[in-house]
Amino acid sequence: MDKLTFGWEEWISLPELGLPALKAKVDTGARTSALHASDIEVFGSSAKPKVRFLVHPIAGREDITIACSAPIIDRREVTSSNGEAELRYVISSALDVGGHSWPIDVTLTNRAGMTSRMLLGRQALNDHISISPTEKRLQPELSYDVYHTPVVRRRAPERALRIAVLSREAHNYSTKRLVEVGEARGHTVEVIDTTRCYMAINSMAPEVHYDGKRLPRYDAVIPRIGASVTPYGCAVIRQFETIGTYCVNGSAGITASRDKLHAHQVLASKKIGMPTTAFAASPKDTSNLMALVGTAPLIVKLLESTQGKGVVLAETKKAAESVIDAFRGLKANFLVQDFVKEAAGEDIRCLVIANKVVAAMKRTGAEGDFRSNLHRGGSAQVVRITKAERDTALRAARAFGLGKAGVDLLRSSDGPKVLEVNSSPGFEGIEKATGKDIVGKLYDEIEARVKPQPVRRRRAG
After folding, report:
1. Coiled-coil stretches, from where to where (predicted)?
2. The model's pTM
3. CB-CB contact of 111 with 3 (8 Å)
4. CB–CB of 148/437 below 8 Å?
5. Which of 9, 88, 352, 366 is packed most tightly, with the most Cβ within 10 A?
6. Residue 197: beta bridge partners?
């Protein structure tokens, strides 16, 4: 490394933290370097703790914020020039100056009034650096303009995220995969039982609490809300949305997709193909209801049905009337649908993430069963879908605003028909059938959505 000469102030960059341009004051009286940060918060396991914090890289510009995170390597007591002692977290980061780069230790402290966002101490100034205390900016000039362009986004480093999985089943395949894959990428993933959350609802500081404590600020929430707790689960998701947390699936999309009547109305409004469907509340309309759908065989489906439960094939008109009368006797809400004979007990599950079909499998019902659900003994295999099927799956997921969805299609003589849009699709069947890392693709999208970038805040006045 060539000999470098620093003045008392220099332009530097900390690329691993997503900070491409900072003015740093050189202070040989200080042992350790310091970065002026705010909202400092610890997360992760006690064995491998991490810290997250915000940096305003331009003095006086609180409207430009960079979110950073890094592993904690130490915690030290630092005495400032005015004699005040402070216990600070210490991280490691590469320091870039004039085409040269070397690792340094950095302490984190909130000194919003300081003009220099960074203080370079003795440890950062290795043997190849000489100091000219009467001069400044002897190294190449940088510019704050980088914070006003998309360049920052392209150069943003990988950042450890704090992610919540809303699930009551911490030990099922899908939830465990979400934890395993997230942690393998260096993120902290916490499973939160949705029904044990409670909320402080107010306009100034909305919060979500859990086990007697306020939940921390999450980078993202992955909802896996069971059908039995949909209303309360969506209320919790709405609270996270109010706070400003990125939710992979929003409350409105989950609510609409879970109500089969509402879901079919949404699909119809977007002119998305689906089996002919009818609904009525009055028992006097049974024959007219069936006539709207067509001739037997017909499907009679409870609005709250999941995993093939509450779905009955009525092969004759009389059988259909009997099933409808039985459901009405239970005061249950149901749909009547045309039975797509050519599907022959098969459907196609398309897994959509971020407006892309990332995997597709064909599900075949067990012997003698028209339902193809894997939970009911069906089998699955990888399948190549047509462009029409791909487009239909994407349009269906988009109709509900879902970032992650399982779209079930039937292959009919007049094109693909959407059977259901599942806002909490399982990963086990489709990962095993296709051999694809579906959960990894979901994390790709989460990382792209919440990676550090300038946050422009509206100035007061």
Report:
1. none
2. 0.69
3. no
4. no
5. 352
6. 210
DSSP-assigned beta bridge partners for residue 246: 220
In a domain, 347, yes or no: yes
pLDDT of residue 124 exceeding 50: yes
- Residue 267 lies inside a defined structural domain of this protein: no
Question: Sorting pLDDT into bands at 50, 70 and 90, what band is 211?
Answer: confident
Contact 199, 206 (CB under 8 A): yes
- In this structure, the answer to whether residues 371 and 428 fall within a common structural domain is yes
Strand partners, 192: 166
**pLDDT value of position 460:** 44
pLDDT bin (cut points 50, 70, 90) of residue 288 is confident
- Per-residue pLDDT, 128: 72
Q: Is the dihedral of CA 80, 54, 162, 240 positive or negative?
A: positive
Helix (H) or strand (E) segment spanning residue 240: helix 230-243
Contact, 374 vs 363, CB < 8 A? Answer: yes
CA pseudo-torsion sign 402, 405, 408, 413? positive
Provide the token pair at 201: 């609802």
Q: pLDDT tens-digit profile of 6-24?
A: 989 999 999 999 899 999 9
- Using CA atoms, how far residue 87 sits from 28, 80, 90, 96, in Å, is 21, 11, 10, 27
| Cβ atoms within 10 Å, residue 202 | 9
CA of residue 254 relative to chain centroid, distance: 14
In sequence order, the 6+-apart residues with CB closer than 8 A to the CB of 342 are 411, 412, 413
Beta strands 298-302 and 220-223, pairing class: unpaired
* Cα 215 to the center of its chain, rounded Å: 17
Domain of 235? Answer: 162-247
Number of domains in the chain: 4
